[in-house]
């Protein structure tokens, strides 16, 4: 095999297209290095999630409680699905009676099903902690494995690259409630197999292997899979433009393998995709306000809230919440990356990586450019793609997540380069060679760039305990099994809380509303929206909305008709709910006096 062919398969990434690969270390040393890397990543993952583990059931993510509640619900629903053989793609226990399309939400079957035994034994909160911690660890170790075997010779270089791919500021941001985005442990192997499709002898094997990896990733997170496919497409085209003589002869074999992958994956995911896009409660495109989640250009040189050098005040105006702080490299790392690209520019693969990163930096700016929180008059390139099918389901700022593994690979190449070139410095051997000026400068540049970005533990807050109405079991006498329950006051917080309490009580009742994506009931185009929608009864019984005014007879009758049409059985109002007295007054105008049970007011819906 020629050096050029090996370059496309990542073999020559170790030292460049014109340099031979150094001899591999002994297997024993390699295994020791692998174990040290695994231990290091495990400690890092635990350090990031330590606050959650110190309070396994009594704490919840401070910055993104609703997403933790949703993932805990999904974990518990996986157990329910296995026990009762429920429909895995749709549920009517949330947003009753309309239901929720689970394929169009973050059901994450690739993670929740394997964790079902842990969820059944220890509960959804503990299982969520396992999922999140394992996502960080698995992503880091997978990148380390691929980097150390196929990209760099130095285990230290592979460790640095893998650590950045999993613990970069953007990954810590997604870790605040999005374990399915952090769980990128399949992506390094997908990249590896795609680049190995060039091998004619392995075209069937690689095609089937890629099909298995893609299918599994599909059931973890479709958005990450789409981003990976787009990034690989840009990278391969960028490399092909530079090395047509290398890539063109390999196209036939690669296309045969890709065709096999496409056929196999299509057969497996056709029905789930049909349910996702055409089944009950399917929708088309994200809410328009979500599609304006652009990456602030200034965020690329800012410091994230979860970084050592970052603060909430310094980061919050540059992103849409902590969970979308996807960039935030500070000033040092962008400068270092530019220096790495310049130093290694002779390598075609580095040029392709740099071009791919630049494309996604531009696309992540969204439909218009934002700087320091202010919208500029300049349009972003994403405007050309935003309304196309599939692209209308991508949150624009998450396009910047593609940059993270590219920077991780470049860092690994740089560390590998300084380990090799630095060792050949002015000293011939021993200490002089180990501490040559080149190596010292390289290590200093890495430290200056990466130390400010070191991750800090995810912050938590005490979990809102369930009312005594639930914890004492008193609810069994007021809420029949299978009943549809509405939690007052209607609104965002109650929708999230009702899912938490439904999970804790083992899905013994259905709930009105909830935290989910579904078709916006106020629109005819079935564009996606969050929650159940602004129905009259939800507006009347929202937090303090009625303002003490008397409802007309027509309004009361309309509210009753809506609740009856939803087959609502019971409405609950905790004593400590926001503006509980005002909400109770509104409920009594519709249903009459409520019944006080423990610390909850209970109303039966007449005619239910």
Automatic annotation (TrEMBL):
The ranges of region (Disordered) come to 1-25
Q: Which residues form the signal peptide?
A: none
Transmembrane spans: 35-54, 120-144, 156-175, 225-242, 254-274, 328-345, 352-371, 399-419, 440-458
Q: Which key words are in the record? A: Membrane, Transmembrane, Transmembrane helix
Q: Cite the DUF6311 domain residue spans from the record.
A: 72-375
Does this entry carry the keyword Membrane? yes
Compositionally biased spans, kind Polar residues: 1-14
InterPro entries cross-referenced by the UniProt entry: DUF6311
| Pfam families attached to this UniProt entry | DUF6311
Q: What is the name of the protein in this document?
A: DUF6311 domain-containing protein
């Amino acid at each position: 095999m020629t050096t050029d062919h090996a370059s496309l398969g990542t073999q020559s990434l170790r030292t460049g297209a014109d340099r031979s690969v150094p001899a591999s270390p002994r297997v024993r040393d390699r295994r020791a290095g692998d174990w040290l890397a695994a231990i290091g990543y495990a400690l890092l993952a635990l350090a990031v999630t330590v606050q959650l583990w110190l309070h396994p059931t009594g704490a919840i993510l401070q910055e993104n409680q609703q997403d933790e509640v949703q993932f805990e619900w999904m974990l518990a629903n996986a157990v329910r699905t296995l026990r009762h053989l429920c429909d895995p793609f749709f549920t009517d226990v949330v947003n009753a009676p309309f239901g929720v399309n689970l394929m169009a939400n973050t059901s994450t079957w690739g993670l929740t099903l394997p964790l079902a035994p842990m969820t059944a034994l220890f509960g959804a909160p503990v299982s969520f902690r396992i999922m999140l911690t394992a996502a960080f660890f698995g992503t880091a170790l997978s990148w380390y494995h691929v980097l150390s075997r196929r990209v760099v010779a130095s285990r230290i270089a592979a460790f640095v690259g893998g650590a950045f791919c999993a613990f970069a500021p953007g990954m810590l941001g997604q870790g605040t409630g999005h374990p399915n985005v952090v769980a990128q442990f399949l992506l390094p192997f997908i990249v590896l197999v795609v680049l190995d499709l060039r091998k004619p002898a392995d075209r069937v094997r690689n095609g089937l292997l890629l099909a298995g990896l893609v299918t599994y990733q599909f059931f973890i997170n479709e958005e990450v899979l789409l981003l990976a496919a787009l990034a690989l497409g840009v990278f391969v085209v960028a490399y092909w433009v530079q090395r047509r003589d290398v890539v063109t002869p390999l196209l036939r074999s690669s296309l045969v393998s890709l065709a096999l992958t496409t056929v196999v994956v299509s057969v497996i995911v056709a029905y789930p995709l049909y349910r996702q896009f055409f089944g009950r409660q399917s929708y088309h495109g994200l809410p328009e306000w979500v599609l304006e989640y652009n990456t602030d250009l200034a965020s690329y040189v800012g410091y994230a809230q979860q970084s050592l050098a970052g603060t909430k005040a310094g980061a919050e105006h540059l992103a849409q919440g902590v969970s979308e702080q996807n960039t935030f490299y500070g000033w040092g790392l962008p400068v270092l990356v530019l220096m790495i690209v310049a130093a290694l520019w002779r390598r075609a693969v580095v040029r392709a990586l740099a071009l791919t990163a630049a494309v996604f930096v531009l696309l992540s700016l969204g439909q218009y450019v934002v700087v320091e929180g202010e919208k500029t008059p300049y349009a972003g390139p994403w405007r050309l793609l935003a309304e196309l099918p599939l692209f209308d389901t991508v949150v624009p700022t998450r396009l910047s997540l593609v940059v993270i593994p590219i920077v991780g690979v470049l860092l690994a190449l740089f560390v590998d380069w300084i380990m090799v070139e630095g060792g050949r410095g002015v000293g011939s051997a021993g200490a002089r060679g180990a501490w040559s000026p080149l190596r010292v400068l390289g290590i200093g540049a890495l430290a200056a760039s990466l130390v400010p970005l070191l991750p800090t533990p995810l912050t938590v807050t005490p979990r809102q305990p369930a009312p005594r109405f639930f914890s004492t079991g008193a609810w069994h006498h007021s809420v029949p099994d299978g009943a549809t329950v509405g939690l007052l006051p209607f609104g965002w917080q109650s929708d999230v809380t009702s899912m938490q309490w439904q999970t804790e009580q083992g899905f013994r009742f259905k709930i009105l509303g909830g935290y989910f994506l579904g078709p916006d009931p106020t629109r005819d185009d079935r564009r996606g929206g969050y929650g159940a929608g602004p129905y009259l009864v939800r507006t009347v019984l929202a937090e303090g909305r009625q303002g003490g005014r008397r409802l007309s007879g027509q309004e009361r009758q309309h509210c009753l008709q809506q609740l009856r049409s939803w087959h609502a059985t019971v409405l609950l109002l905790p004593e400590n709910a926001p503006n509980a007295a005002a909400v109770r007054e509104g409920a009594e105008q519709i249903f009459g006096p409520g019944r006080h049970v423990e610390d909850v007011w209970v109303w039966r819906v007449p005619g239910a």
